[in-house]
Structures are given as structure tokens and as C-alpha cells.
Amino acid sequence: MDHKSIIQHYIQEIKAENTATRKCLERIPESTYKFKPHPKSMEMGYLALLVADIPNWIAITIVDSNIDFATHKQFPLSDTAALLAYYDENIKKATDALENVTEEQLKTDFTLKNNGQLLYTAPKLQSLGEDINHWVHHRGQLTVYMRLNDLAVPSIYGPSADEKTF
User: Fold this and answer.
1) How many domains does the chain have?
2) In its keyword annotation, does this UniProt entry include Metal-binding (predicted)?
């Protein structure tokens, strides 16, 4: 399979996951941002921000080739409208970067660091799939947090207890 076919697959996957992800994010009220289901868990606001941010990682993977958590600019969490605008911007960045990626870029590595310490390195093509999986994983966590806060969980791959139809 050529790189353009793989990239088109990733673009379609992002588009398919976008609708349900946005529905989740738009249902997270600011009043739940501090909620944690367990002391070791992240706060709901941080988790929502992570779900909104990960599409930007796709663009960063392609364009910048690395993320260092110590210097990665974190969006200031304020309210749902701002979070949704940030998310929409990141979806656009991700799809734009994918539409313009070259085969040569895909052959290079992506690295993830924390304060300069290497956490992960892999070819960009592999990293892109892992970014999408990471995004979907955290959205799944977010739906559990939503359920624990009695927030309506949208249908994602089929009906939910709150939405019987698509």
C-alpha cells in the first residue's frame, strides 16, 4: 500500500472519530473539570483537554517531529466553548498536515520526551496510528467520567444508553 492510501485512511479515520469526540467534549460542563474518579486518576478537565489536544499531536508529529512535555504549550482550560474551538482548530491542523505530508517525512522518526528525557521514538507513519489510538483511548476514558457524572454519553460506534439512535 502506498503512503497516500495510508494517509487517506488516517484522514477518514479522524473524520469518523471527530463527530463522536466533539459530542463528548461539548457535554463536559466546567463544573465537572475538577472531578476525579480515583485519587490516581487525572481530573476530568485535564482529560477533556487531552482529548481536544491529541489531534494537534498528529500535526506536530508530521511537521515538528517531536514533543517535549516540558515545553509543549498547553491550552489554558477555561470553558466549553473555548475547548471546542481549540479542538476544531486541532482537527483542521491534523487533516491539513496529513493532506500535505510527503513520503520522505513519513520515513523519519517522531520522538516524545519529557524535559529532554527520551520516552519514545518511532517512525512517523507508526506514530500517526498510535496518536489516533491514543486519542480514541482517552475519549473512552472520558465517556466513563461522563457516566459517573450523569452526563449523557453519545452514541459512538453504536447506540448508547443515552442515545438509542445515531
Assistant:
1) 1
2) yes
Please state, in angstroms and rounded to a whole number, the distance separating the CA atoms of residues 99 and 11.
8
Range of the domain at 79: 3-148
User: 111 has which bridge partners?
Assistant: 66, 121
Residue 53 lies in a domain: yes
Buried b (16+ CB within 10 A) or exposed e, 104-138: ebbeeebebbeeeeeeeeeebbebbeebbeebbeb
Each residue's pLDDT, cut to its tens digit, for the chain (166 residues) gives 677 889 999 999 999 999 999 999 999 999 999 999 999 999 999 999 999 999 999 999 999 999 999 999 999 999 999 999 999 999 999 999 999 999 899 999 999 999 999 999 999 999 999 999 999 999 999 999 999 999 999 999 989 999 876 5
SS3 of residue 105 by DSSP: helix
Amino acid type, 96: D
The residue whose grid cell reads 485519587 is 39
Q: Kindly state whether residue 155 falls inside one of the protein's structural domains.
A: no
